[in-house]
Amino acid sequence: MLTPHRRILLLAAVPVIAAATLATAEFTSAFAADEQPAAPRAAASAVPSPAAGSPTATTKPAEGAGTPAATVAPSPAGPAPSATARPKTARPAATGKAPAPLTVQELPNQAKAGWKPIGSPKSRDVAPSSSLNECAAVEGATGWQQQGWASAAKTPAIQDTFTFATPTDADRARQVLNTQLDGCQTALRDAQTKQGRTPDATSSRTATSPAAGAWQYQWTAVPGMSAPGAQTHHVYLAAAGNVLTVLQYSDLTSAGQGNSATPASDADLLTTLAGSLALTR
């Protein structure tokens, strides 16, 4: 398991709704203007979500180049709303060389989630390996921008955008992340076993395109980077040029949430995410 070296996303350790309020407050402080950043941490913490069904074992689609429309993978188990088109809206200003984050209208399940931004995009210190969640870490980045949002249920969403010295470095990091996320089930079950829990984690890739991919994992999380308890965690990855971006959010059973995504909505979001990078090239 990858261990973060920074306490930026402590909201990722939100165990229940009551604790979620405190975690969101801490997350807000991390984004407060002029606040001294916490001690360097290797990456962006992930935010898992509530269990809802159990997707099948991970399969890895072929990779290519460019950012065409995403294709839909076989549907994982669990209820979820249908995909909806995201309106085109003006993006906030970007930080440094990184493109601006998604708008709230472009975030997943916005109609029900009611996402609200937590401050403005912030630049973070990069490390040789920056942990995203229990399964994956970004390697070799030269810049890092982070934006957070809180849902009406006080659950978090995070977009981490990394810049690299060259497009080759960015694509290499993307391929490493693909492999790590495709193998996430093993990493999660190892974490559960080490803490004496029943290894019930399942993981699957839900949508893909040549330079983007979507995954979800469902498990009874153990303390660490995730809120303990049943949840479904969603991960969206896209790369273009020398930029790589990762969006993550959680559906927590303790917050009364079920799986909020379908393969169709994940493919739609991948197209939006990849498109946001293409606009900056």
UniProtKB/TrEMBL annotation:
Residues 42-95, 198-210 have a biased composition (Low complexity). The lineage of its organism: Bacteria, Bacillati, Actinomycetota, Actinomycetes, Kitasatosporales. The keyword Protein biosynthesis does not apply. This is PknH-like protein. Keywords: Signal. Residues 1-25 form the signal peptide. It comes from Streptomyces spororaveus. Coiled coil: none annotated. Residues 42-131, 190-210 are annotated as: Disordered.
